[in-house]
What does this fold into?
Amino acid sequence: SSLQATTPEEVTVKTTALVILRKILDLEGEEKWKAIDNNLKEQIKKKALEAFVNEKDPNQKGKICDVLTQIIDKVSDCDEQWDDLQKLALTILTINIEENNLVQIDSLLKLMKDATGFLYDELFKNIKQILMYLENIFKSSFTKLKVSASELLSELISFGNEEETKQFTPFIFNILQTTLECLTTNQEDLLKRQLEMLIELVSVEPVLFRKHFNDLYILAGKIVEKKDYDEEKIREQGFEVLISLIEEKPAWIEKDE
It folds into this structure.
């Protein structure tokens, strides 16, 4: 199997090599990737996936995920296939949502988000199962997973057509609830991520928020009212959510006045 286990020592070596590879790809870009021998490219993709699967440390796994994203960009630009990546992404559906699996689930959510464009057909082919899995994440107590699930949903929405986007509407409440959870539990790093996602999502698909306009307006107000953040940027993000919403749908404000 291309995802076979390796020893911790091999994983460490692969991780270092992948970081170096990413720097090379950053510098050389698409042309460098095209110039690489096809057999070598397949080995690079294979070893990158092996390192991702086997790494247990969250920080190292995040770095490997960044490298995979870089490789995905090159593979996509060159119209190449990567079947094992598709298979890996969908393994998330087989993983129980529990404490011992948090790192694995979170990294797969990030990978799916970063690769949504490349994996679009495969993800939407399995969208019902994916949405059921995300629904179970929102029912859990793991705030970080909920934030990652929100980011993946936002990315799926941005790539979906009008008909596909309708099925995401019920999750807007979950996204807002997660944002409130980050605020009330003072998890500022997660709150920043959630607000960055909301700002983008409001700009791309404001109509999804029509039913929850008042909820979003009140939530943004609470974020802005809080004065004791470690980072003032969070209050600015709260303002930006409000401004984006008003700019996109000013009639909603007038109607609710």
Confidence is low (pLDDT under 50) at residues 1-5. The longest helix spans residues 8-35.
